[in-house]
Structure formats: C-alpha cells, structure tokens
Design goal:
- With 166 residues, the protein is α+β, with helices and mostly antiparallel strands.
- It has one domain.
- It has three helices and seven strands.
- Strands 1, 2, 3, 4, 5, 6 and 7 form a seven-stranded mixed β-sheet that branches.
- A hairpin with a 2-residue loop joins strand 2 and strand 3.
- The protein starts with a strand and ends in a 34-residue tail after the last helix.
Length: 166
C-alpha cells in the first residue's frame, strides 16, 4: 500500500475528478482526530477545514494519505464540526466511508454519502491514555480497590525529615 503525505485531505486530493456514478459507489475512507477548525475561501465559496491528524484511503487504488488538515464533503462537514465543538479543545475522533450516489433531481450531478465506522468520541489524548492503563493496584490492608479517578486516602504520619538550615 503506497502512502503519501500532503497539506490537506479533500475528496479531490484523494480521488481526483469523480465521474457521475450510475449507482452508489464507495470512493474513500477517512479517519482522524480533529482539534480545531479554520475557514478557507475557495473557488466554490467558503469552506470549513479541520485541523488535527488525519488519514484517508482511496478505495479504488488503495493509496493512503496523511495530512494535518481535512476538508470534508458538505454533509460530513456539519457532523465533524459538531464533534469538534463538543470536544471543547480536546480531540474529536472519527472514521467514515464516503460514497457518491446519483442525484435523482439532477442527472449530471451526484451526492456524497458518509457512513460512520466508529462511534464518534470526544476527549483528550490524556483521556485515551488513561483508559488504556490497567486498573490501579490495591494497597494491602484496604477494604476496596481505589477507583481510577480517586486516590486512596493517605495515612497520616509524623514527618520524618529533619529541619535544614539555610
């Protein structure tokens, strides 16, 4: 599988010009972690881009791409935008298969359809790391194991250090 790095992931960058399909056709898979957004002006008007870490695969060729920006098709743009907003500065993780389908009202055009491959999740890298850790070990003599978010109650002891002079 050939891998390439780029500045941004777009349908055009991954798949090139797409002919009008006669039936639903999968074109690409995209996945990543979005941390923020930026507004870009294009020949098609304003477009919302996502900043973070992204990868995409052209389904027809198997070629894989990575980039720090992702410009989603219009229908997916609103979904990812909501995830980023809900993340409040954390990372919004997602993965989608994107297909094109004929537009029944305009035969010379097509529509994008995206299907989520994972339950979307919002959190920080630290949250993901903490979830990957094993359960805290228990301390001898305690009645129950400490919870991940709760430290065990410290036993009050007399200080053992000596006073230092300066």
């Amino acid at each position: 599988m050939k891998k390439a790095k780029g500045k941004k992931i777009t349908v055009n960058a991954i798949c090139g010009n797409i002919p009008v399909p006669t039936k639903a056709t999968p074109i690409m898979r995209v996945w990543g972690i979005a941390y923020g957004t930026r507004l870009a002006k294009t020949i098609f008007g304003n477009s919302l881009g996502f900043t973070g870490t992204f990868a995409a695969c052209n389904i027809a060729t198997g070629e894989e791409f990575t980039a720090p920006e992702f410009f989603a098709p219009p229908a997916l743009e609103a979904v990812v935008s909501a995830l980023v907003r809900d993340a409040c500065g954390g990372g919004a993780q997602f993965a989608y298969d994107i297909s094109v389908t004929p537009n029944p009202e305009a035969p010379e055009k097509f529509d994008y359809v995206s299907v989520s491959l994972l339950p979307a999740s919002v959190g920080t890298v630290l949250d993901s790391l903490r979830e990957a850790l094993p359960v805290l070990p228990s301390i001898e003599g305690t009645k129950e194991e400490p919870k991940v978010d709760q430290a065990p109650a410290a036993k009050k002891e007399e200080p053992t250090s000596k006073k230092r002079s300066r």
